[in-house]
Amino acid sequence: MVRTNQVFLDYFQDWIKSSAISSEQAKIKRYSKGEKLLIQQSRAHQVMIILEGCTKCFFCEDNDKEFIVEFLGQGEIIGEIEFLRSNPCLCHVEALTPVSVFSMSYSFFSTILQQDLKFNHLLLSVFADRIIQTSRRASFQQVYSLEHSLVRLLQFQETQGLSLSKEDMASYLGITVRSLNRVLRKIERGV
After folding, report:
1. 153 and 132 in one domain?
2. Among 34, 67, 85, 115, whose CB has the most other CB atoms within 10 angstroms?
3. Which of 18-27, 86-95, 137-146, 171-180 has the lowest mean pLDDT?
4. What is the per-residue pLDDT across 28-57, written as a single tens digit (0 to 9) for each?
5. Are residues 174 and 138 both part of a single domain?
6. pLDDT tens readout for residues 134-171
7. What is the DSSP string of 115-138?
């Protein structure tokens, strides 16, 4: 449930080690739990690769309802779509745990894209994986019961050592907190 990409991270870290870069072009940034890395509809000025920690990527709708698209972890890249499309941020990205990222300026990211064909191929692979994972998640939610999805989410929380709020669990499952409470009671009763 937490998307990671160790291959992408390893390649990027090797690329950085072999390149002479300035701290204005790229640097490590740290975010505290609850801090937003990207804010929906604002302008981003950097592309980030998560070095460690866990984030949630979510949309906030006009009615203030949230929908969690995905949990992102080590090796995942954020802000690249906004760079490529010259758009404001599509969604919020918030730290669920302390998070460190490798943050690079748009000009530096552009240079990598222009100079490194393998980086481009890895980035295309990231995009393809996102489409596949989104399709799998949508089909999973159609095929399996809400109870099954919630049990998996609870197991995920336990294995990751996370404590998701009921609001976050409901947002990830695409339901209301009231519906979540109903399903939690049903699971507790073993029905």
Report:
1. no
2. 67
3. 18-27
4. 999 999 999 999 999 999 999 999 999 999
5. no
6. 888 888 777 778 888 888 888 888 888 888 888 988 88
7. H-HHHHHHHHHHHHHHHHHHHHHH
Closest CA to 118 of 16, 3, 11: 11
What's the confidence (pLDDT) of residue 191? 59
- Do 177 and 100 lie in a common domain? no
- What's the CA gap between 27 and 24, in Å, rounded? 7
**CA nearest 89: which of 46, 124, 26?**
46
Beta bridge mates, 31: 99
**Among 160, 158, 151, CA closest to 180:** 151
Distance from chain centroid for Cα 137: 14
Domain count, the chain: 2
Instruction: Show contacts of 56-64: CB within 8 Å, 24+ apart.
Output: 56/93, 56/94, 56/96, 56/168, 56/172, 57/91, 57/92, 57/93, 58/91, 58/92, 58/94, 58/171, 59/90, 59/91, 59/92, 60/91, 60/92
Mean pLDDT, range 51-72, rounded to an integer: 90
Q: How many residues does the chain have?
A: 191
Cα 40 to Cα 22: distance, rounded to the nearest angstrom: 29
C-alpha 100/C-alpha 107 separation (Å) is 21
- Nearest Cα to 6, choosing from 67, 59, 63, 50? 50
